[in-house]
Amino acid sequence: MNKLEKLASKLIKREYSKEGFLQLLQSLFAQKSDAWLLYETLIARGFPLFEEDGIVGLKTAKTPFWEQEFVLVDIETNGSKPQDAQVIEIGAIKFQGTKILDRFESFIYADKIPEYISKLTGITQSDLLFAPSQKEVLLGFKEFLGDRVFVAHNVNFDYNFISAKLEQMGYGKLANRKLCSIDLAKRTIPSERYGLAYLNETLGINTLVSHRAYADALTAFKVMQMALRRIPKEIKSTEDLIKFSKKGLKSAVKAAQ
Protein backbone atom coordinates (compact mmCIF):
# COMPACT_ATOMS: atom_id res chain seq x y z
CA MET A 1 0.00 0.00 0.00
CA ASN A 2 1.50 3.33 -1.04
CA LYS A 3 1.42 6.46 1.10
CA LEU A 4 -1.62 7.96 -0.62
CA GLU A 5 -3.59 4.75 -0.08
CA LYS A 6 -2.52 4.70 3.57
CA LEU A 7 -3.70 8.29 3.95
CA ALA A 8 -7.01 7.49 2.28
CA SER A 9 -7.52 4.43 4.50
CA LYS A 10 -7.02 6.60 7.60
CA LEU A 11 -9.52 9.19 6.36
CA ILE A 12 -12.11 6.57 5.40
CA LYS A 13 -12.20 5.49 9.04
CA ARG A 14 -12.39 8.97 10.60
CA GLU A 15 -12.04 12.71 10.14
CA TYR A 16 -9.32 14.78 11.81
CA SER A 17 -8.87 18.18 13.34
CA LYS A 18 -6.68 20.40 11.15
CA GLU A 19 -3.79 20.08 13.60
CA GLY A 20 -4.24 16.32 13.86
CA PHE A 21 -4.34 15.98 10.10
CA LEU A 22 -1.10 17.94 9.64
CA GLN A 23 0.53 15.66 12.21
CA LEU A 24 -0.79 12.64 10.31
CA LEU A 25 0.76 13.95 7.09
CA GLN A 26 4.14 14.37 8.68
CA SER A 27 4.02 10.88 10.19
CA LEU A 28 2.95 9.20 6.94
CA PHE A 29 5.16 11.10 4.52
CA ALA A 30 8.15 11.60 6.87
CA GLN A 31 8.45 15.18 5.64
CA LYS A 32 10.72 17.64 7.40
CA SER A 33 9.19 20.42 5.30
CA ASP A 34 6.12 22.40 6.28
CA ALA A 35 3.11 20.08 6.69
CA TRP A 36 0.87 22.91 5.48
CA LEU A 37 2.78 22.95 2.17
CA LEU A 38 2.29 19.19 1.86
CA TYR A 39 -1.42 19.65 2.52
CA GLU A 40 -1.68 22.26 -0.25
CA THR A 41 0.37 20.08 -2.60
CA LEU A 42 -1.98 17.13 -2.13
CA ILE A 43 -4.97 19.31 -2.99
CA ALA A 44 -3.16 20.66 -6.08
CA ARG A 45 -2.46 17.08 -7.19
CA GLY A 46 -6.15 16.11 -6.95
CA PHE A 47 -6.43 14.37 -3.58
CA PRO A 48 -10.08 15.00 -2.61
CA LEU A 49 -9.80 16.65 0.80
CA PHE A 50 -12.40 18.87 2.41
CA GLU A 51 -12.03 21.21 5.36
CA GLU A 52 -15.07 22.37 7.32
CA ASP A 53 -15.12 24.10 10.71
CA GLY A 54 -11.54 23.03 11.40
CA ILE A 55 -12.22 19.39 10.48
CA VAL A 56 -10.43 17.68 7.57
CA GLY A 57 -11.84 14.65 5.79
CA LEU A 58 -12.02 12.74 2.52
CA LYS A 59 -14.77 13.87 0.11
CA THR A 60 -15.16 10.42 -1.44
CA ALA A 61 -15.78 8.84 1.97
CA LYS A 62 -18.82 11.08 2.50
CA THR A 63 -20.18 11.44 -1.03
CA PRO A 64 -22.82 8.91 -2.18
CA PHE A 65 -21.47 7.31 -5.36
CA TRP A 66 -24.53 8.39 -7.37
CA GLU A 67 -23.71 12.03 -6.47
CA GLN A 68 -19.98 11.67 -7.16
CA GLU A 69 -18.46 13.31 -10.22
CA PHE A 70 -16.22 10.89 -12.14
CA VAL A 71 -13.95 11.50 -15.11
CA LEU A 72 -13.70 8.51 -17.45
CA VAL A 73 -10.45 8.67 -19.42
CA ASP A 74 -8.87 6.95 -22.40
CA ILE A 75 -5.53 7.76 -23.99
CA GLU A 76 -3.67 6.71 -27.10
CA THR A 77 0.12 6.77 -26.94
CA ASN A 78 3.03 6.24 -29.33
CA GLY A 79 4.59 3.63 -27.03
CA SER A 80 3.94 1.65 -23.88
CA LYS A 81 6.39 3.31 -21.46
CA PRO A 82 6.07 6.98 -20.44
CA GLN A 83 9.84 7.41 -20.18
CA ASP A 84 10.16 6.62 -23.91
CA ALA A 85 6.78 7.67 -25.28
CA GLN A 86 4.00 10.23 -24.96
CA VAL A 87 0.26 10.68 -25.16
CA ILE A 88 -0.91 11.41 -28.72
CA GLU A 89 -4.65 11.57 -28.05
CA ILE A 90 -6.83 11.91 -24.96
CA GLY A 91 -10.57 11.63 -24.53
CA ALA A 92 -12.46 12.08 -21.27
CA ILE A 93 -16.07 12.23 -20.08
CA LYS A 94 -17.07 13.96 -16.86
CA PHE A 95 -20.24 12.42 -15.46
CA GLN A 96 -22.44 12.18 -12.40
CA GLY A 97 -24.84 9.27 -12.15
CA THR A 98 -26.28 8.79 -15.64
CA LYS A 99 -25.66 12.38 -16.74
CA ILE A 100 -22.68 13.43 -18.88
CA LEU A 101 -21.58 16.84 -17.58
CA ASP A 102 -18.74 17.68 -19.95
CA ARG A 103 -16.18 16.21 -22.34
CA PHE A 104 -12.50 16.70 -23.10
CA GLU A 105 -10.87 15.60 -26.33
CA SER A 106 -7.64 16.49 -28.11
CA PHE A 107 -4.84 15.26 -30.32
CA ILE A 108 -1.34 16.00 -29.04
CA TYR A 109 1.63 16.90 -31.22
CA ALA A 110 4.28 14.19 -31.51
CA ASP A 111 7.45 13.96 -33.61
CA LYS A 112 6.86 10.33 -34.49
CA ILE A 113 4.20 7.65 -34.62
CA PRO A 114 5.30 4.04 -35.12
CA GLU A 115 3.59 2.30 -38.02
CA TYR A 116 1.94 -0.28 -35.76
CA ILE A 117 0.33 2.52 -33.71
CA SER A 118 -1.07 4.12 -36.87
CA LYS A 119 -2.45 0.76 -37.99
CA LEU A 120 -4.04 0.16 -34.58
CA THR A 121 -5.54 3.62 -34.05
CA GLY A 122 -5.78 5.13 -37.52
CA ILE A 123 -3.93 8.20 -36.20
CA THR A 124 -1.28 9.45 -38.62
CA GLN A 125 1.52 11.98 -38.37
CA SER A 126 -0.52 14.47 -40.38
CA ASP A 127 -3.31 14.31 -37.75
CA LEU A 128 -0.87 15.63 -35.15
CA LEU A 129 0.94 18.20 -37.28
CA PHE A 130 -0.90 21.23 -35.91
CA ALA A 131 -2.03 19.70 -32.58
CA PRO A 132 -1.24 21.46 -29.28
CA SER A 133 1.73 20.39 -27.17
CA GLN A 134 1.57 17.61 -24.60
CA LYS A 135 2.14 20.14 -21.81
CA GLU A 136 -0.77 22.32 -22.93
CA VAL A 137 -3.17 19.41 -23.29
CA LEU A 138 -2.26 17.56 -20.10
CA LEU A 139 -2.45 20.71 -18.01
CA GLY A 140 -5.86 21.40 -19.55
CA PHE A 141 -6.90 17.84 -18.72
CA LYS A 142 -5.59 18.20 -15.15
CA GLU A 143 -7.82 21.23 -14.68
CA PHE A 144 -10.75 19.32 -16.23
CA LEU A 145 -10.11 16.41 -13.83
CA GLY A 146 -9.77 18.50 -10.67
CA ASP A 147 -10.14 16.26 -7.63
CA ARG A 148 -12.72 13.99 -9.24
CA VAL A 149 -12.37 10.21 -9.35
CA PHE A 150 -10.25 9.05 -12.30
CA VAL A 151 -11.87 6.08 -14.10
CA ALA A 152 -10.49 4.06 -17.02
CA HIS A 153 -10.73 0.60 -18.53
CA ASN A 154 -7.46 -0.78 -17.09
CA VAL A 155 -7.06 2.35 -15.00
CA ASN A 156 -3.46 1.80 -13.92
CA PHE A 157 -2.13 2.26 -17.46
CA ASP A 158 -3.92 5.55 -18.23
CA TYR A 159 -3.53 6.95 -14.71
CA ASN A 160 0.14 6.05 -14.33
CA PHE A 161 1.06 7.20 -17.85
CA ILE A 162 -0.52 10.64 -17.42
CA SER A 163 0.84 10.90 -13.89
CA ALA A 164 4.38 10.13 -15.06
CA LYS A 165 4.19 12.70 -17.87
CA LEU A 166 2.96 15.39 -15.48
CA GLU A 167 5.80 14.57 -13.10
CA GLN A 168 8.32 14.76 -15.95
CA MET A 169 7.03 18.26 -16.71
CA GLY A 170 7.48 19.31 -13.08
CA TYR A 171 3.84 19.33 -11.97
CA GLY A 172 3.89 16.34 -9.65
CA LYS A 173 2.09 13.03 -9.91
CA LEU A 174 -1.68 12.68 -9.78
CA ALA A 175 -3.16 12.04 -6.34
CA ASN A 176 -6.79 11.49 -7.41
CA ARG A 177 -8.75 8.51 -6.22
CA LYS A 178 -9.13 6.01 -9.06
CA LEU A 179 -11.47 3.23 -10.12
CA CYS A 180 -11.05 0.56 -12.80
CA SER A 181 -14.09 -0.04 -15.01
CA ILE A 182 -12.74 -3.52 -15.88
CA ASP A 183 -12.73 -4.46 -12.20
CA LEU A 184 -16.22 -3.06 -11.69
CA ALA A 185 -17.52 -4.87 -14.78
CA LYS A 186 -16.02 -8.17 -13.59
CA ARG A 187 -17.89 -7.82 -10.33
CA THR A 188 -21.26 -6.95 -11.83
CA ILE A 189 -21.55 -8.10 -15.47
CA PRO A 190 -21.27 -11.81 -16.41
CA SER A 191 -19.00 -12.12 -19.45
CA GLU A 192 -16.39 -14.48 -20.85
CA ARG A 193 -13.97 -11.59 -21.44
CA TYR A 194 -13.76 -7.97 -20.31
CA GLY A 195 -11.73 -6.24 -23.01
CA LEU A 196 -13.47 -3.09 -24.22
CA ALA A 197 -13.91 -4.28 -27.82
CA TYR A 198 -15.46 -7.55 -26.62
CA LEU A 199 -17.87 -5.79 -24.22
CA ASN A 200 -18.74 -3.25 -26.91
CA GLU A 201 -19.98 -6.07 -29.12
CA THR A 202 -21.47 -8.54 -26.64
CA LEU A 203 -23.32 -5.94 -24.55
CA GLY A 204 -24.82 -4.34 -27.65
CA ILE A 205 -23.13 -0.98 -27.14
CA ASN A 206 -21.91 -0.99 -30.74
CA THR A 207 -19.69 2.09 -30.74
CA LEU A 208 -18.48 2.12 -34.35
CA VAL A 209 -14.92 3.31 -33.66
CA SER A 210 -12.33 1.58 -31.44
CA HIS A 211 -8.80 2.43 -30.36
CA ARG A 212 -9.61 6.12 -30.50
CA ALA A 213 -9.59 7.98 -27.21
CA TYR A 214 -13.02 9.60 -27.00
CA ALA A 215 -14.84 6.68 -28.66
CA ASP A 216 -13.29 4.22 -26.22
CA ALA A 217 -14.06 6.54 -23.28
CA LEU A 218 -17.70 6.63 -24.43
CA THR A 219 -17.82 2.82 -24.66
CA ALA A 220 -16.32 2.50 -21.19
CA PHE A 221 -18.84 5.05 -19.89
CA LYS A 222 -21.69 2.86 -21.17
CA VAL A 223 -20.11 -0.23 -19.57
CA MET A 224 -19.80 1.75 -16.34
CA GLN A 225 -23.50 2.68 -16.48
CA MET A 226 -24.46 -0.99 -16.82
CA ALA A 227 -22.21 -1.86 -13.89
CA LEU A 228 -23.58 0.90 -11.65
CA ARG A 229 -27.12 -0.39 -12.14
CA ARG A 230 -26.03 -3.70 -10.61
CA ILE A 231 -24.31 -2.37 -7.46
CA PRO A 232 -25.56 -3.99 -4.22
CA LYS A 233 -27.77 -1.78 -2.07
CA GLU A 234 -25.32 -1.76 0.83
CA ILE A 235 -22.77 0.11 -1.27
CA LYS A 236 -23.35 3.77 -0.44
CA SER A 237 -20.30 6.03 -0.68
CA THR A 238 -17.76 6.47 -3.46
CA GLU A 239 -15.17 4.76 -1.27
CA ASP A 240 -17.58 1.85 -0.79
CA LEU A 241 -17.75 1.58 -4.58
CA ILE A 242 -13.96 1.68 -4.97
CA LYS A 243 -13.59 -1.02 -2.30
CA PHE A 244 -16.33 -3.14 -3.87
CA SER A 245 -14.60 -2.97 -7.27
CA LYS A 246 -11.51 -4.56 -5.74
CA LYS A 247 -13.32 -7.43 -3.96
CA GLY A 248 -12.95 -11.07 -4.92
CA LEU A 249 -14.92 -11.78 -8.10
CA LYS A 250 -17.14 -14.61 -6.87
CA SER A 251 -18.31 -12.92 -3.69
CA ALA A 252 -18.93 -9.59 -5.43
CA VAL A 253 -20.92 -11.04 -8.33
CA LYS A 254 -22.97 -13.09 -5.90
CA ALA A 255 -23.68 -9.93 -3.88
CA ALA A 256 -24.62 -8.02 -7.02
CA GLN A 257 -27.01 -10.76 -8.13
Overview of this structure, please?
The strands form two sheets. This protein has a five-stranded mixed β-sheet. The chain has helices at residues 3-13, 18-29, 35-44, 59-62, 115-121, 125-128, 134-145, 155-168, 181-186, 196-202, 213-228, 238-245, 249-256, and strands spanning 16-17, 49-52, 55-58, 69-77, 87-96, 99-107, 149-152, 178-180. It is 46% helix and 18% strand. Helix 8 (155-168) links the parallel strand 7 (149-152) and strand 8 (178-180). The protein starts with a helix and ends with a helix. By secondary structure, it is an alpha/beta fold. It folds into two domains: 3-62; 69-256, Ribonuclease H-like superfamily/Ribonuclease H (Nucleotidyltransferase, domain 5). The mean pLDDT is 93. Helix 2 (18-29) crosses helix 3 (35-44).
Describe how the helices and strands are arranged.
Elements: H1 3-13, E1 16-17, H2 18-29, H3 35-44, E2 49-52, E3 55-58, H4 59-62, E4 69-77, E5 87-96, E6 99-107, H5 115-121, H6 125-128, H7 134-145, E7 149-152, H8 155-168, E8 178-180, H9 181-186, H10 196-202, H11 213-228, H12 238-245, H13 249-256
Parallel strand pairs: 4-7, 7-8
Antiparallel strand pairs: 1-3, 2-3, 4-5, 5-6
Helix pairs in contact: 2-3
Q: Strand content of the residues, in percent?
A: 15-25%
Order of helices and strands: HEHHEEHEEEHHHEHEHHHHH
Kindly name the structural category: alpha/beta
Neighbour order of strands in the largest sheet: 6-5-4-7-8
The coarse silhouette is globular
| SS summary, helix count | 13
